[in-house]
Amino acid sequence: MAETTTKTPVYALTREERRFVGLHLVFAFAALTIGSLFGPLQALEHAGLDLYPTLEKFGIQSYYQGLTLHGVLNALVWTTFFITGFLTVAIIRGFQRRLAHPGLNQLGFWMMVVGLLMAAVPLLLNKATVLFTFYPPMQASTWFYLGLTLVVVGSWIEGWGFYATYWQWRKDNPKTRTPFIAFASLVTMVMWQIATLGVAAEILGLLLPWSMGLVDGVDPQLSRTFFWFTGHPLVYFWLLPAYVSWYGMLPKQVDGKLFSDSLARLAFWLFLLLSVPLGFHHQFVDPGVPAGWKYVHAILTFSVFFPSLMTFFTVIASLEYGARQRGGKGRFGWIRALPWSNPSVTAQLLAGILFVFGGIGGLANAAYNVNLVLHNTAWVPGHFHLTVASAVTLSFIGISFWLVPHLTHKPLWQPKVALAGVWTYFVGMLIFSNAMHTVGLLGAPRRTTLGLAPYVPAEWSGYLWRVGFGGSLMWIGIMATITVVAVTAFRKKQLPEGEFVDVPVAESIEDPQRTPVWLDSWKPWLVGTAVLVLLAYGPQLIDQLFGMSATSPRIAP
Amino acid sequence: MSTSTEHLHIDPTEKRWMIASVGLLLIFFAAVTVAGFMLGIQVPTRERRVDPNTVAEQPPWSEPGVREIVPGEEYEVYVLAHRFSFTPNEIEVPAGAKVTFYVTSTDVQHGFKLQDTNVNFMALPGQVSKLSTTFEKPGVYPYICTEYCGLGHAVMAGAVTVTEAP
Ligand code: HEM
Ligand SMILES: [Cu+2]
Ligand SMILES: [Cu+2]
Q1: pLDDT of residue B1
Q2: Nearest 5 degrees, angle CA A76-CA A556-CA A452?
Q3: Taking a C-beta distance cutoff of 8 angstroms, is the pair A485, A401 a contact?
């Protein structure tokens, strides 16, 4: 069984809307396919098998050019294109109405596409081999910075289209609680728009003028502060759409209900409040940030763990509710009653399991002084492959297993291959991330061709071999799932006449109408967010801005 | 639609879970605070700014290397990071002494990680990174660049040789 079909969808997207969302997915999956290609190459390089000389024939001139493509295409392009497309569905289906200004959303989307192409050219020509963090004074082609700007602004515009749709709906429904999936999508977008002010300031204020030669120098420290203002909440921009599914859709897929509407909303508000003001935890070992401020952000970072723990509880309770409806028994025995034969469900369950490990590792990263041992070691990519490359990517792939049939009216191709792919990726990830964490603790740096490094002790080699092995399995797994999605999208076979795959939308056990109104009002939460961001960042931003010394000239990578 | 039926419903199990979560976080707060302020495991803090274009010509980095402050007890080490090596790339200090590293970059962003110690920080152009450590055991401790700085990044490394305490 893959996806359940229905004869009467609750609310059907129009043909244009389905095409529009589908285009998002085309770009998203193209990026993931190309980006993932470098994953096993990097992992095998660590294991001692350097395939990069062969790659030169195809125009990839170094490990680092590949790594830049891997980071940009996977972490920035795949995520942003998938998220804007998926949230569009959540908004339309949540409000059960057309977008208020489809043209606005189209504009945003095509701006993202233009930005992507603009950035892709220098990336492919080895003119922007600066990794996805583009730390100055290493300088990329101006087109790279311009392209990134357009992608971000395009995503903002799509968000404005969501807000307009919300206002229209609100006018017609002044007293109704915002439907959960639409609500959660809006919070995600608002958080993103606050978060990206940092990178907007960095690129527009510092990097673009400098790369165009209008100013001679740049301040690397200030640049990092702006970057990480965005860089941390970026991970919540990836994660929250997965939570939209875990809270608002997955329960339905397992015959369950959302366990607590109120607490689900509270968790999203807390993510809005707490996602931004803690970016210094990426700068614990930066020389230009006072230790006191790092400590403040460390404490705030632990706080954001609270809504994560709430999520853990509510999602598991919702799944258990469903499993018991399906006849599941026993303290843990109910887990077996979940529909593991449905690849969409399995992908998201495995995503959740990997995320538990990711969360525990995240606590170590956040712990101020423990970070001294981990910073910029292989532990860090070991960690975020459990988050962005597992919790997020596996969830998005799972979502695609119903979303693509929903959009195309075609049945999922080979659910068994989908299942096998998901499990292979899961097993590969366990091996890969475990080895990366351990070798990182032993001191192996990240972002490094370890095959060439003179300081690699023999004791690392067993772990590095497992990095290569696990990474190869991951690639096989992810390619299987991408193949399933692609064949489904482009196959001829249609669903039987009059049948549809509906967007799974979970009801909540409690009537949402009974959720307190303070959990459905923007003002207190927006004010709170602004105040917290100003308190946590204001003094340091002012200090670093006024103390700016733009002394670093451009240096080619 | 009426507000009279409105309430924040929290399941008793979930309430216990949330209380436990807050408790857990308080323990983490305490652990970090104790480690940072009572055990003194500190992260780098703002030290001073330099001009990356001229720092290599001016003291103390015009003569990078080890300064003996109190023989056998206290040392300072000035290190320049530049593509793709550290100056100096060999350092010798005795075991048991407090050694403070001052590192800055003359070009792009680098990292400085001294293996098997708590010394691990960014080396940025324009800023000075500072941390201290005490080597308990004699031996060779590599220090490596942990931030991508260009094609030769992987070979950017040096080593501290720790001799027997005098
Ligand atoms: C297909 C399987 C994959 C494998 C085998 C793989 C492997 C790796 C390895 C070994 C590194 C570390 C390279 C280094 O530090 O030198 C890395 C970095 C990274 N990976 Fe993956 N990866 C895979 C998929 C993904 C996915 C799906 C995502 C995100 C959606 C992702 C995001 C990243 C990011 C953001 C980095 C950091 C790049 C940087 O340091 O600049 N990876 N990957
Ligand atoms: Cu973070
Ligand atoms: Cu380097």
Answers
A1: 41
A2: 80
A3: yes
Residue A454, helix vs strand vs coil: coil
* pTM of the predicted protein model: 0.96
- ipTM of this complex: 0.93
Helix (H), strand (E), coil (C) string for A84-103: HHHHHHHHHHHHCCCCCCHH
CA distance A278 to A280: 6
Q: Which amino acid makes up residue A460?
A: W
pLDDT exceeds cutoff 70 at B4: no
- Comparing C-alpha atoms, which of A18, A41, A515, A504 is closest to residue A268? A515
- Per-residue pLDDT, A1: 41
Among candidate residues A121, A199, A208, A212, the one with its CA nearest the CA of residue A156: A199
Which residue, judged by its Cα, is nearest atom 25 of ligand 1?
A: A389
CA distances from A488 to A51, A87, A400, A410 (A): 32, 21, 10, 7
Q: Give the Cα separation of B16 and B26 in Å (integer).
A: 15
Interface test with B, best of A289, A302, A517 (most B CBs within 10 A): A302
DSSP H/E element including A543? helix A522-546
Res. B166: pLDDT tops 90: no
Locus of tokens 């293996």? B115
Is the pLDDT at B94 greater than 80? The verdict is yes
Shortest Cα distance, chain B CAs vs residue A137, angstroms:
6
- Which residue puts its alpha carbon closest to atom 41 of ligand 1? A131
Put the strands of the sheet holding B157-163 in their side by side order: B90-94, B157-163, B139-144, B110-114, B120-123
Residue of A nearest to B5 (CA): A514
In angstroms, the CA B86 to CA A345 distance is 51
SS3 state at A59: coil
d(CA A542, CA B106): 26
Q: How many CB atoms lie within 10 A of CB A445?
A: 28
Instruction: Give the span between the Cα atoms of A288 and B89, in whole angstroms.
Output: 25
**Residue A6 phi, psi (nearest 5):** -140, 155
- CB A506 within 8 Å of CB A251: yes
Residue A118 belongs to what H/E stretch?
Answer: helix A102-124
Taking the centre of ligand 3 as the mean of its atom positions, its distance from the CA of residue B152, in whole angstroms, is 7
For residue A2, pLDDT beyond 70: no
User: Quick one: tokens of A306?
Assistant: 């609270």
Nearest in space to B109 (alpha carbons), one of B76, B144, B81, B70? B81
Q: CB distance from A449 to chain B under 8 Å?
A: yes
**Token pair listed for A507:** 């009801």
What pLDDT digit, counting tens, does each position of A117-167 carry? 999 999 999 999 999 999 999 999 999 999 999 999 999 999 999 999 999
Q: How far is CA B132 from CA A507, B55, B97, B114, in A?
A: 57, 22, 10, 11
B144 pLDDT exceeds 90? yes
Name the closest-CA residue to atom 14, ligand 1: A447
Query: How do beta strands B90-94 and B157-163 pair?
Result: parallel
In this predicted structure, what is the pLDDT of residue A426? 98
pLDDT digits (tens, 9 = 90+) for A40-94: 999 999 999 999 999 998 889 999 999 999 999 999 999 999 999 999 999 999 9
The secondary structure element, H or E, covering residue A81 is helix A79-95
Query: Which one of B124, B141, B156 makes the best mutation probe of the A interface by having the most chain A beta carbons within 10 Å?
Result: B124
Closest to A408 in 3D by CA, of A468, A491, A511: A491
Mean pLDDT of chain A: 94
Q: Which residue of chain B has the CA closest to A297?
A: B29
